[in-house]
Amino acid sequence: MAEAKAQxxxxxxxxxxxxxxxxxxxxxxxxxxxxxxxxxxxxxLMEEVDRTVHHMQDDAxxxxxxxxxxxxxxxxxxxxxxxxxxxxxxxxxxxxxxxxDEHDYGYCEACxxxxxxxxxxxRPTATxxxxxxxxxxxxxxxxx
Length: 144
Fold this sequence. Notes:
mainly alpha
């Protein structure tokens, strides 16, 4: 059982943060833990963007067969949509890093309560506590 516990990791191989009983929420050690996670995630996404650019440059071939051209364009379109989602995610990561710099990271934007270390490790860009996020999702479902 202890071995399984030691094998646990958060995003990008970081060990889960173990807060002490009297430890203040979002102290400098916790902020540094999340900064490391966010920067590693951003770096990984940026490397993926570079790979996509090189892949599209290297594989851009003018196929004589219209079906081959259509397949290539479809693949490129899918890659570009994925990269666009990642670009938006990089923006959220940058916003989270800004909140860390301002010492606002880890607190719900709607109600101001602590989001929680485990939730932030699962979703480092979270801006809402679980209760506010649940209410937000319910409202969205009702709007259709």
